[in-house]
Amino acid sequence: MKHILETKQKEQIPFKCAIIVNDMAELNVDKNLIDQSAIRVGSVNKCVCCTLSDDLSKQIIELAQEDEYDYMIIEASGISEPSQIARLFQHADDHDHASHADQVLLQDVASVDTCATVISAAEFFENFEDVTRQGDTKQDPWSKLMVEQIEYANVLILNKTDLCNDEQLDKIEEHLNILNPNANIIRSYNSQIDVSKVVATKLFNVKQFEMFSHTNVDS
Q1: Which DSSP symbol is given to 78?
Q2: Which of 17, 123, 133, 185 is most deeply buried (CB count within 10 A of its CB)?
Q3: Would you list the DSSP string of 88-109?
């Protein structure tokens, strides 16, 4: 998030976006940078997963109705399930919409463009070993979540690459390609990336999302 703010200010990228974070304090960005960037930062005080039906949806709708932003970037916490957030934007065909015909729905004002996951190259092997050691039948919720965040992403940002050699990075990418062969993998240092690779990519595919969701339900 900090990199997006700084890049937009430095290179004068001509888009306006709102950023929604779990904890404003964790963003650690100078207030002046926010004020000068034409970027609004909203804050959800609880885990995004706990506020899906109220705080998050309400805030997105309110920001969309201001008609000042081209994009919204949601920075979920490390314990948030990306599929649960994306599911909010899907139309429920079997739902009775007549009961709230005059109400603005999230799906009517916003859609998912890209789902990105940041991965620490320096800690990948340790975390990956923890997941595989659990076994499919004994995976704890944290292990399952870590795998889902990789499998569900359109873009995988492999960060802290300066702490690994090329052979280690190639090995990590092999694992990532097995877990998610469709994702774009970007290597980064200090989260320095080309912002256009994660904003307005149109990489999110609803059919792929539905396939992923059904696979998780069946398993």
Answers
A1: T
A2: 17
A3: TTS--TTS-GGGGTTSPPHHHH
